[in-house]
Amino acid sequence: MADILEFLGENPYRIRAYRRVANLITELPEDVEKAFFTKKLHRMSGIGESTLLKIEEFLKTGTVKKYEELRKMVPESLLELLDAPGVGPKTLKIAYEKLGIRTKEEFINALKEGKFNKIRGFGPAKAVKILRGIEIWEKSKERIHLVEAYFMAQEVLEYMKKVKHLIEDVSIAGSLRRRKETIGDIDLLISAKKENWLKIHEHFTKFPGSIEVLAKGETKSSIILESGRQVDLRTVEPSSWGAALQYFTGSKQHNIRIRDIAKEKGLKINEYGVFKADTEEKLGGKTEEEVYNLLGMQWIPPEIREDWGEIELALENKIPRLVEYGDIKGDLHMHTTWSDGVNTLEEMVETAYRLGYQYIVIGDHSQSARVANGLTPDRYRQQWKEIERLNKEYNPKGFYILKGAEVDILPDGSLDLPDDFLRQFDFIVASVHSRFEQDNTERIIRAIENPYVNMIGHPTGKQYGYREGYPVDIKKIIEIARETGTALELNTQRMDLSPENIRMCMEEGAYIGIVTDAHSARQLTLMHLGVGLARRGWATPDKVINTFDLDKLKEFVYSKRKKFAKA
DNA sequence: GCCGTTTTCGGCCCGACTGTTTTCAGTCG
User: Fold this and answer.
1) Closest-CA residue to A336 (of A367, A374, A370, A303)
2) Model pTM?
């Protein structure tokens, strides 16, 4: 509705209000229906009388009359173009009203044929720019996976190190810093002395992987990578570092609210600092903490800056202490060349040891995972010998290798290995790898009820960018997991669980485990991204089992066995 | 459309870059 209103040239603040509502309800940890009937929606700032009526209408009739009316007022294929860079509502309106354009194709043709040229303020260079924008947009419509974006950003950062003598500080900003599951473009921020800015942008726009320079200025420039991804660079003075980092990290909705609050307090905030609104006197901006504190709130972790209620909590100093990378004592799920990993057991162990962990769980696939070279009980026993040998070497250094497995949950909910064998492992992950079309709720619940299963691998079956999850009642699974003392896996690469799922776990009091599911030594280093995803779901360290030290983790395993295993 | 320890009406975040302009509109983040 906001898109259509924008096209129609409606009051921009009304449009903003619609967008805010959309943002709030998409990220709700529960059903809109439930939030409506428990009156949670009624209490949310940004949702007013008129929105509540529309939601009620939608819940009763399945549609909203105003939306149906609006839809008739603009061709859908034209509206889609709002997402293309360089195309905004004003341009579309000109196309629609003055040139009679009704579809995306007509729009592109009109640009190519120079039909826009006769319109005031619309020269040929603009047409070229928009056409190029549409081309890039078509190529990179899909947002990319966090992990992929992270590696791209690392390449650019590596390249920028060549001019590090010009730079004070550098950071990733934007949705990548917020650890959003998917990334549209990559934002970098650099602080440096003003006389160096131009040189920094010169260097940046010559990045070898760049195929196009979209903009180049003294404070801001943008390039397009071969993949079609855009990278934006901003430069600021060191004294503005915190304000700029806060600003360029977003989200947009979060920042709008932050500036609202600044205004209420007679302050002005921009990327250069916090100022008194009347006298323009600068009050601060060197660090992010300073910026938030000047607004009367505590620092907000980037991962939760989405205007989902974090601002209200920060004003009351009530943001929970979220799990941090430094809390993580080990990785609970990884593969080696024994099954479908590319690095040997020894290589995985050495890499994990260097990461500073206290323990890891080796979790190679079980026998029925044939394509993944799953292990039979005999091969697990052989692997244990190697693990025992390595433990003799590493235990004196304070590092422990736990015998584990990623056991298949068979279609009937039974496990791929018998109980009397499972009990000989230190830690068991159980996962569904087949029959993705059926409802898997009962199947998983049966696996959770097994006393030797400590964690359910990728519980919803979702694999970002590849596969929708299987049908499953995640709420029910979370409940049973909590009752039985079983953790649910947050799989960094698959991004299963979602932030909404994690919030549900936290609200229910269920445990999660953050894992890399590494199939190579390099992937072991992705843990900090997994921690970021957990933080997006407001995960606290007490509910993350791999923040436990080894003794506590063992206690977690044994207390379930004690409670449920037959004598 | 939403909101209020100045306001129930009149405001609503802020700045950079581009192209087409002689002072600014459109778009973007």
Assistant:
1) A374
2) 0.83
